[in-house]
Amino acid sequence: MTPRSHCLLVTLLASALLAACSTPPTTRVVLLPQADGKPSAVVVSTEDGEETLSQPYERATAKLGAHGAPNVDKADPERVKQQNKTLFELMPPPAQSFTVYFEVGGTVLTAASQVTMNEALAAALARSGGEIVVTGHTDTVGTQARNDNLSLTRALEIRQLFIARDFPPVRIEAVGRGERDLPVRTADEVAEPRNRRVTIEVR
């Protein structure tokens, strides 16, 4: 039976559960929920058919040598956790997100964001082996090219703050999105403070 998943996390978890729960002559695959609550799916196939698991704790069961697609039902979440306690203990903690804001036109954090930055630093340092994605944004004041550069500069400034606290540089990705993805939609050339930001994902 060959599971193929639309999500790497689901692939790993489904494979682990397959190994943990399989007892001849029956093989089972259970889809676990994503830590961030986002939807996911895994396709479980046999020689005679396939089924897609798309809801948390859906289970596909196939008897070795039997004909037809796997049978799909719903596993009991508590029983799955009890039977695979070690697997759940090895799962990484959920990602944490932080947003810091900047004074107009530059890379100076607002006073309130200094506090948020300290919280993000503490969260990153407390997570062994974690990774950080830093994404810079701007408002609509200035040209698109200028804002692309400014957003990346902001992201790199935040990245440097993590590096200064001895967080490994190879585990920090910094990108700039300019004035794209505005949380507050405005016309061009509007200085909106909520759009001048860097999002930090600690995972």
List the helices and strands and how they pair.
Elements: E1 2-5, H1 8-21, E2 26-30, E3 42-46, E4 49-53, E5 58-63, E6 71-74, H2 77-83, H3 85-90, E7 96-101, H4 111-126, E8 132-136, H5 144-164, E9 172-176, E10 197-202
Parallel strand pairs: 8-9
Antiparallel strand pairs: 1-3, 2-5, 3-4, 5-6, 7-10, 8-10
- CATH superfamily placement of the largest domain: OmpA-like domain
Summed up, the helix count is 5
- Count of structural domains: 2
The residue-averaged pLDDT reads 85
Main sheet makeup: 4 strands, mixed
Domain OmpA-like: 89-203
Signal peptide: 1-19
Pfam families: OmpA
Organism: Variovorax ginsengisoli
Descriptive notes:
The chain is an alpha+beta fold and about 200 residues long. It folds into two domains: about 1-90, no CATH class; about 95-200, OmpA-like domain (60s Ribosomal Protein L30, Chain: A). The chain contains five helices and ten strands. It has a four-stranded mixed beta sheet with strand order 7-10-8-9. A three-stranded antiparallel beta sheet has the order 1-3-4, covered by helices on one side. Strand 5 and strand 6 (about 70-75) form a beta hairpin. The protein is elongated, with a radius of gyration of 23 Å. The two termini are about 30 Å apart. The model is unreliable at about 1-15 and about 20 (pLDDT under 50).
